[in-house]
Sequence to fold (490 residues):
Amino acid sequence: MRIFGRALLALLALVAVVGGVLVVRTLTVKPIGAEGAPKIAAAPPIDVDRAAQRLAMAIRFQTISRQDQAFDPAPFDGLHAFLRETYPLTFSKFTVETPVGRSLLMTLPGSDPSLKPMLLMAHQDVVPVDTGSEDKWRAPPFAGAIADGYVLGRGATDDKGTLIAILEATEALLAQGFTPKRTIILAFGHDEEVSGSGAKAMAELLKSRGVTPWFALDEGLAIVDRFPLTGKTTALIGIAEKGYLTVKVTGVDVGGHSSMPPRLTAAEKVAKALVAIDDKGFPGGLESGPARLMLEALTPDLPFAQRLVMANLWLFRPVVEGEVGKSRAGEALMRTTVAPTILAGGTKENVLPQEASAIVNLRLHPRDTMESALARLRAAVAGIEGVTIEPLPRGQNASPVSTTTGDAYALIAATAQAVAPGVPVAPGLVLGATDSRHFAGVAENVYRFAPAVFTDADLAGIHGTDERLSIANIKRMTTFYAQLVATGAS
Fold:
């Protein structure tokens, strides 16, 4: 009995210690980027109605990028002429270069060459409007209409809203006589929606000149009106983006008449391969990427019970991973995703195809590479005779993960909170691809954030029907860029 009593006391002591650790960690957790946040400079006056009209005008230039058509420079030339006329101070004081196509690389030298430049990015091109969907828009997609507090049209959000907000900000600052200590670089790509060759050329040009920006800031994430984790408005700053790999899965057989099929036809081999790939899957979890950082950054804003769990992932990580993985977005945040997108094979209903194929698109988590992902896919189908997997062009690894502890992140986070007071800020992972990927290895850090509050309806319009940007967001975005420049370049 004496031994049992000692064991019970030891167990109670251990529980007390663990409980104390849990509570202390819960009560002392701090927001990421809160320490060292700078005092944000005041913004110049913003004529938001005029800015909205200018965005509407920019939308009317149909700067469409099409994957299967030759580049048409005419709409871009028209847009450039409009921008030069509309923002005369910016285009006279910044040097303007066009390294390739119609991309614009603009530089305003600072007075202190020892300070590394800040680089602000946007892209000029837009995706096409789906044929037959035009009558589903509230206004013609390229009319640049303004209604009910929104600028409507293709490119309003992706990404001419950012383009106009940056130029409105620089023009307003220059009108006040602003002269930066830190060099300011603007990079406006012309083909982000198809290849990003413009951004790549601009990045290579800066690198050849030995220019290493302090940070690059591009589109990617934003201020989410209702973030599922917190149920509150939350600002998410992309500190990395997923990689991209597309493969072709091919199954071959001798073919012949459908009345005498083999045990596995070419089509069945492909189907079996897709099932095997799905069964194999990719490892997931909160480690080796921004997911854990995001949860830790949002922890201080959670109710006590949730905060206790999030502040002690060393104990509760499997539970949290299970909960996060219940949603499609959460699952994509934690692992490489695999999506069959195109199936092909056969020419006639009673003829066995000699070849069938599937196109499979992967979005690579930072823990995986193109090489390791391809090896995993091939291992999954190794036992299926007649199946091969080959990568298609244009693949790329996930970007490096940028720091959340430096001055650049603190500046962006603090400026985001200045235009959205009381909103928590957290790092995140961009699931798609942006032009900023080309600046990895050129800029010290690359961040992806649009300072706009987006509802689900706003997000649905991106690459979809009824794309729109609220006038309130235009003011918020212009103010953000003006304060970012005035604070970071002074």
User: Anything to note?
Assistant: Residues 7-15 have pLDDT under 50 and may be disordered. The chain has two domains: 48-240+399-488, 243-391. The longest helix spans residues 2-28. The longest strand covers residues 215-224.
